Amino acid sequence: RFSSFVQMRGSIPSFWSQDISKMVPKPAISIDRSDPFAQIPAKHFNNLMKRYGSPIMILNLVKKREKKKHESLLTEVISNAVK
């Protein structure tokens, strides 16, 4: 018997950006476009399914709790998309 896995690391599949023109340690994260039907993440994960098959396991390493919302904005985006 053989088994294998593919590990990928990447950004949250959605419309977001950071202004890196300013010299600050943590550039603010902006959610650039609303995607209420999660079409962008769906397209991304469908592409992964076609390419690698199933199951797909998602491990969110983005911060969930912060005093001032920063990365947690992206956690909300991806959590709502994969429910």
TrEMBL record:
Gene Ontology molecular function: phosphatidylinositol-3,5-bisphosphate 5-phosphatase activity
GO cellular component labels: endomembrane system
Subcellular location(s) of the protein: Endomembrane system
Keyword Membrane assigned: yes
Keyword Aminoacyl-tRNA synthetase: no
Primary localization: membrane
Record GO biological process: phosphatidylinositol dephosphorylation
Keyword annotations: Hydrolase, Membrane
InterPro entries named among the record's database cross-references: Fig4-like, SAC_dom
Residues of the SAC domain: 1-83
Protein name: SAC domain-containing protein 3
